[in-house]
Amino acid sequence: MDTPLYSVRMRASSQGQHLAGAERIVSGAAVSEVTAAMVSRAMNCATGAAEEIHCSVERIASAVRFEPLPDVATYIVNNWQDGRQLAGTLLFRAGVEKDVAAQAVLLLANGAGTGGSVMRGAVIMDAETGERLEKDPSRGVRVSRMDLSSECRAELMRELASAGLGHHRVLEALVLAGKVLRAPGIVAELCWSDDPNYTTGYVAAPSGGYQRISALKPVGDSYGGRVFFVKRSHVSLEGFVNYMEHQAVLFNALGAISPPGKWVATDG
Ligand code: WAQ
Ligand code: MG
Q1: Are strands 261-262 and 123-126 parallel, antiparallel or unpaired?
Q2: Is residue 118 located within the same domain as residue 203?
Q3: 170 C-beta closer than 6 A to ligand 1
Q4: Of 152, 156, 233, 235, whose Cβ has the fewest other Cβ atoms within 10 Å?
């Protein structure tokens, strides 16, 4: 018998500014506890007191997909310029045209949103032409409804901590990228944070997995974002966006986590 699962989501804001967000997929028995923990975290937010906290609890009506997480690799680069070069190489390897990869890096570096702002969601980009395909380029597409099973979460936290990757951003981004890589028609994802103190980003691809790059921007830079690459002629955009926003995906197995390796840029 299948026990129903629930999507629990929280977002906190102050003066109309987003402060914190979280989401989980849990059994009915865990809903109250998980919701309370989210609210408590938002009430004690490091970035300031929340004025508004919105929680939603929804029973997941359609089938949940159970998937394994992608493998994790880490490239240590000398500086963010080398990091961006490596991102281009990894994107090209995944099937993104060279100039399109370069265009995507510049887009995130300059702010992909309206008037050069940071977007709340991701850009969808044609891997062959660089054309932007998201319906609302000021918002982008938001990936939602993904989580780790509780056993997998405990195991992943242990494994990441022992690999020196215990920062919460690693786990959260890995789960998000894991869902993205299971999307119909995905070619690759490029991401780095808008947090000025967090310079590590990644290129994710179905063949390469979750490939971390130690620096994709200088410290103090508050730009960041995500680009999902697809081949326009091979994908139903509506199906792609619907999957990203609504399909529940629960990860129940880990991929391999490799030790970090140095990467040295080549000329040209
Ligand atoms: N769906 C789509 N785009 C999103 C989502 C989402 N659910 N959440 C964030 N974004 C976009 C948005 O433009 C953010 O500004 C941008 O991504 C960055 O989000 O292995 O922490 O949460 O060391 O700041 C990657 C490396 C960290 C982690 C990424 O992103 C590691 C990170 P942030
Ligand atoms: Mg952020």
Answers
A1: unpaired
A2: yes
A3: yes
A4: 233
87 C-alpha vs ligand 2 centroid, how far in Å?
20
Q: Are 127 and 231 in contact (CB under 8 A)?
A: yes
CA–CA separation, 226 vs 192, rounded Å?
7
Query: Is the whole-model pTM more than 0.70?
Result: yes
Cα 5 to Cα 25: distance, rounded to the nearest angstrom: 7
* pLDDT tens-digit profile, the chain (268 residues): 478 999 999 999 998 888 888 999 999 999 999 999 999 989 987 777 889 999 999 999 999 999 999 999 999 999 999 999 999 999 999 999 999 999 999 999 999 999 999 999 999 999 999 999 999 988 999 999 999 999 999 999 999 999 999 999 999 999 999 999 999 999 999 999 999 999 999 999 999 999 999 999 999 999 999 999 999 999 999 999 999 999 999 999 999 999 999 999 887 5
268 located within any domain: no
Domain limits at 208? 66-262
Give me the number of domains the chain comprises: 2
Among all ligands shown, which has an atom nearest to the Cα of 111?
1
SS3 225: strand
Instruction: Evaluate whether residue 267 is within a structural domain.
Output: no
Residue whose CB lies within 8 A of the most ligand 1 atoms, among 175, 223, 226, 241, for a mutation test: 226
118 and 100 in one domain?
yes
**Cα 201 to middle of ligand 2, angstroms:** 12
Instruction: State which of 61, 84, 104 marks the end of a domain.
Output: 61
Question: Separation of 42 CA from ligand 2 center, angstroms?
Answer: 15
Q: Please tell me if the CB atom of residue 226 comes closer than 6 angstroms to any atom of ligand 1.
A: yes
Q: In what order do the strands lie in the sheet with 249-253?
A: 65-68, 249-253, 146-148
